[in-house]
Write a structure and sequence with these properties.
With 197 residues, this protein is mostly helical. 72% of the residues lie in helices and 4% in strands. The model has no long low-confidence stretch (mean pLDDT 92).
Protein backbone atom coordinates (compact mmCIF):
# COMPACT_ATOMS: atom_id res chain seq x y z
CA UNK A 1 0.00 0.00 0.00
CA UNK A 2 2.90 2.38 0.73
CA UNK A 3 4.22 2.19 -2.82
CA UNK A 4 0.71 2.78 -4.22
CA UNK A 5 0.30 5.92 -2.08
CA UNK A 6 3.74 7.17 -3.15
CA UNK A 7 2.97 6.67 -6.86
CA UNK A 8 -0.45 8.34 -6.68
CA UNK A 9 0.93 11.26 -4.66
CA UNK A 10 3.81 11.79 -7.09
CA UNK A 11 1.47 11.72 -10.09
CA UNK A 12 -1.07 14.11 -8.54
CA UNK A 13 1.64 16.49 -7.33
CA UNK A 14 3.29 16.62 -10.76
CA UNK A 15 -0.10 17.27 -12.37
CA UNK A 16 -0.61 20.12 -9.91
CA UNK A 17 2.82 21.59 -10.68
CA UNK A 18 1.66 21.85 -14.29
CA UNK A 19 -1.91 22.98 -13.65
CA UNK A 20 -2.35 25.75 -11.09
CA UNK A 21 -6.15 25.46 -11.30
CA UNK A 22 -5.98 21.81 -10.16
CA UNK A 23 -3.54 22.78 -7.39
CA UNK A 24 -6.03 25.42 -6.17
CA UNK A 25 -8.92 22.93 -6.15
CA UNK A 26 -7.04 20.37 -4.04
CA UNK A 27 -5.14 22.43 -1.45
CA UNK A 28 -6.37 22.80 2.14
CA UNK A 29 -8.15 26.11 2.51
CA UNK A 30 -9.76 26.20 5.97
CA UNK A 31 -11.95 29.09 4.88
CA UNK A 32 -13.33 27.17 1.89
CA UNK A 33 -13.74 23.97 3.89
CA UNK A 34 -15.72 25.66 6.65
CA UNK A 35 -17.66 28.25 4.61
CA UNK A 36 -18.16 26.46 1.28
CA UNK A 37 -18.29 22.91 2.69
CA UNK A 38 -15.43 21.76 0.44
CA UNK A 39 -14.61 18.86 2.76
CA UNK A 40 -12.59 16.92 0.18
CA UNK A 41 -9.73 19.35 0.74
CA UNK A 42 -9.03 17.75 4.14
CA UNK A 43 -7.79 14.70 2.20
CA UNK A 44 -6.74 16.04 -1.20
CA UNK A 45 -4.20 18.50 0.22
CA UNK A 46 -2.05 15.49 1.14
CA UNK A 47 -1.58 14.67 -2.55
CA UNK A 48 -0.40 18.20 -3.43
CA UNK A 49 3.05 19.60 -2.66
CA UNK A 50 4.65 23.03 -2.85
CA UNK A 51 7.58 21.91 -5.02
CA UNK A 52 9.67 18.91 -6.04
CA UNK A 53 11.84 19.04 -2.90
CA UNK A 54 8.78 19.04 -0.61
CA UNK A 55 7.39 16.08 -2.56
CA UNK A 56 10.69 14.18 -2.57
CA UNK A 57 11.29 14.53 1.18
CA UNK A 58 7.77 13.41 2.11
CA UNK A 59 7.77 10.45 -0.26
CA UNK A 60 11.28 9.35 0.73
CA UNK A 61 10.32 9.32 4.43
CA UNK A 62 7.04 7.54 3.67
CA UNK A 63 8.74 4.89 1.53
CA UNK A 64 11.54 4.43 4.09
CA UNK A 65 9.20 3.64 6.99
CA UNK A 66 5.82 2.76 5.50
CA UNK A 67 6.49 -0.83 4.51
CA UNK A 68 7.94 -1.65 7.95
CA UNK A 69 4.80 -0.22 9.58
CA UNK A 70 2.66 -2.29 7.21
CA UNK A 71 4.55 -5.41 8.31
CA UNK A 72 4.10 -4.57 12.00
CA UNK A 73 0.39 -3.94 11.53
CA UNK A 74 0.17 -7.22 9.65
CA UNK A 75 1.85 -9.07 12.51
CA UNK A 76 -0.15 -7.46 15.32
CA UNK A 77 -3.65 -6.67 14.00
CA UNK A 78 -6.52 -8.04 12.00
CA UNK A 79 -7.17 -6.17 8.73
CA UNK A 80 -3.68 -4.61 8.47
CA UNK A 81 -4.34 -2.86 5.15
CA UNK A 82 -7.42 -1.19 6.59
CA UNK A 83 -5.44 -0.08 9.64
CA UNK A 84 -2.61 1.28 7.50
CA UNK A 85 -5.17 3.18 5.43
CA UNK A 86 -6.73 4.65 8.60
CA UNK A 87 -3.28 5.43 10.03
CA UNK A 88 -2.19 7.33 6.91
CA UNK A 89 -5.39 9.16 6.06
CA UNK A 90 -6.35 9.60 9.71
CA UNK A 91 -3.00 11.31 10.23
CA UNK A 92 -3.76 13.55 7.28
CA UNK A 93 -7.18 14.55 8.63
CA UNK A 94 -6.00 15.02 12.22
CA UNK A 95 -3.10 17.15 10.98
CA UNK A 96 -5.56 19.48 9.24
CA UNK A 97 -7.88 20.02 12.21
CA UNK A 98 -5.79 22.78 13.88
CA UNK A 99 -5.92 24.77 10.64
CA UNK A 100 -9.69 24.32 10.38
CA UNK A 101 -10.08 25.62 13.93
CA UNK A 102 -7.50 28.42 13.97
CA UNK A 103 -7.68 29.67 10.39
CA UNK A 104 -11.29 29.18 9.31
CA UNK A 105 -11.72 32.95 8.87
CA UNK A 106 -8.41 33.52 7.06
CA UNK A 107 -9.42 33.59 3.41
CA UNK A 108 -5.92 33.52 1.91
CA UNK A 109 -4.41 30.80 4.14
CA UNK A 110 -3.66 27.48 2.43
CA UNK A 111 -1.69 24.36 3.25
CA UNK A 112 -0.43 21.50 1.11
CA UNK A 113 1.55 18.33 1.60
CA UNK A 114 1.45 14.85 3.09
CA UNK A 115 3.57 15.81 6.10
CA UNK A 116 0.86 15.07 8.68
CA UNK A 117 0.20 11.63 7.23
CA UNK A 118 3.91 10.89 6.81
CA UNK A 119 4.55 11.97 10.40
CA UNK A 120 1.83 9.54 11.50
CA UNK A 121 3.60 6.67 9.71
CA UNK A 122 7.00 7.71 11.06
CA UNK A 123 5.72 7.82 14.65
CA UNK A 124 3.94 4.49 14.27
CA UNK A 125 7.36 3.14 13.26
CA UNK A 126 8.87 4.69 16.42
CA UNK A 127 6.10 3.05 18.45
CA UNK A 128 6.90 -0.39 17.07
CA UNK A 129 10.70 0.01 16.99
CA UNK A 130 11.67 2.75 19.46
CA UNK A 131 15.40 1.99 19.42
CA UNK A 132 15.81 1.91 15.64
CA UNK A 133 18.09 4.67 14.43
CA UNK A 134 16.64 7.67 12.61
CA UNK A 135 18.68 10.43 11.04
CA UNK A 136 18.36 13.77 12.82
CA UNK A 137 18.70 16.53 10.23
CA UNK A 138 19.26 13.71 7.72
CA UNK A 139 22.76 13.12 9.10
CA UNK A 140 23.02 12.28 12.82
CA UNK A 141 21.77 8.76 13.73
CA UNK A 142 19.78 8.72 16.97
CA UNK A 143 17.24 6.26 18.40
CA UNK A 144 13.62 6.92 17.47
CA UNK A 145 12.65 7.19 21.13
CA UNK A 146 14.93 10.25 21.38
CA UNK A 147 14.19 11.58 17.89
CA UNK A 148 10.43 11.55 18.59
CA UNK A 149 10.36 13.97 21.55
CA UNK A 150 12.87 16.26 19.81
CA UNK A 151 10.67 16.31 16.70
CA UNK A 152 7.56 17.11 18.76
CA UNK A 153 9.34 19.84 20.71
CA UNK A 154 10.72 21.42 17.53
CA UNK A 155 7.33 21.24 15.76
CA UNK A 156 5.58 22.80 18.75
CA UNK A 157 8.20 25.54 19.10
CA UNK A 158 8.16 26.40 15.40
CA UNK A 159 4.34 26.37 15.28
CA UNK A 160 4.31 29.05 17.99
CA UNK A 161 7.12 31.01 16.41
CA UNK A 162 5.80 30.82 12.84
CA UNK A 163 7.07 32.74 9.86
CA UNK A 164 8.65 29.96 7.79
CA UNK A 165 5.72 28.80 5.61
CA UNK A 166 5.85 25.29 7.10
CA UNK A 167 2.77 23.81 8.75
CA UNK A 168 4.43 22.60 11.95
CA UNK A 169 1.04 21.95 13.56
CA UNK A 170 0.42 19.30 10.89
CA UNK A 171 3.72 17.64 11.73
CA UNK A 172 2.97 17.67 15.46
CA UNK A 173 -0.61 16.41 15.39
CA UNK A 174 0.03 13.85 12.66
CA UNK A 175 2.94 12.46 14.70
CA UNK A 176 0.91 12.22 17.91
CA UNK A 177 -1.90 10.46 16.03
CA UNK A 178 0.56 7.97 14.52
CA UNK A 179 2.08 7.13 17.88
CA UNK A 180 -1.23 6.49 19.66
CA UNK A 181 -3.10 4.85 16.78
CA UNK A 182 -1.66 1.34 17.40
CA UNK A 183 -3.05 1.53 20.93
CA UNK A 184 -6.55 2.25 19.61
CA UNK A 185 -6.28 -0.74 17.31
CA UNK A 186 -4.88 -3.10 19.92
CA UNK A 187 -4.45 -1.78 23.49
CA UNK A 188 -2.27 -4.77 24.40
CA UNK A 189 0.41 -3.31 22.10
CA UNK A 190 1.31 -1.03 25.01
CA UNK A 191 3.05 -4.07 26.49
CA UNK A 192 5.03 -4.46 23.25
CA UNK A 193 6.14 -0.83 23.40
CA UNK A 194 7.16 -1.07 27.06
CA UNK A 195 9.06 -4.32 26.48
CA UNK A 196 10.91 -2.72 23.54
CA UNK A 197 12.03 0.06 25.88
Amino acid sequence: MTLTIVIITVLVSIACFRRRDVFEKLLLSPYRVMHNREWWRVITHGFVHADYLHLAVNMLVLYSFGEAVELWLGATTNFPKLHYFVLYFGGMVVAGIPDLVKRKEVYHYASVGASGAVSAVLFAFIFFQPWSKLLLMGVIPIPGIIFGPLYLWYSSYMARRGGDNVNHDAHFYGAVFGFVYPLFVEPSLLQHFLSEL
